[in-house]
Amino acid sequence: MTIGFRHVFARAHAWNLARAVRVAAIAWIAAAFTVASVQAGERNPLEVKANMLFNIVKFVQWPDGATAPKGEMTFAILGDDELASVIAATFSTRSIGGRQVFVRCIRRVEDAKDCQVLYVASSETTRVNQVIELLAGKCVLTTSDVPGFAAGGGMVNFVQDNEHVRFEINPGSAERARLKISAKLLALARIVAESQ
Q: pTM here?
């Protein structure tokens, strides 16, 4: 049985073509995983802030009786911005210290009195002073990413530092609200005092 030159060449060509297709497919899959892993490493700053806030809340202690009877934790969002939406999505599926987190979106500052954490959205910049005055002495952790929030009497303020998200804490405001912030958390924060 003799095999012609053309037949051998055709089989070799078909084998090389199939091999080339397999190599190309493997390279494409590897490239897709590489792109996915790079994108996972590049976190959205809004997600970073929401997760930071979630972790900050873990290091705050409320006085006895400051949480709901069932031990639930209520997180209120005053106003609307992109971060508020991400925070609502982040917190609504989690628990903190065994307590289920409930997220409420509110329009009136008065509705924040019964919550444990309040996020003030950037849409409420003009009402920041009203929020701080109305909640003075209440056991509500006030948070925002409005510039100057902590220096104005808020408790936790997110700030952008070049490419990094940082947070400021005003311990004086937290103490007046009878909230205890862990020394470990304070060591990581920029400490600010209220501007006079």
A: 0.75
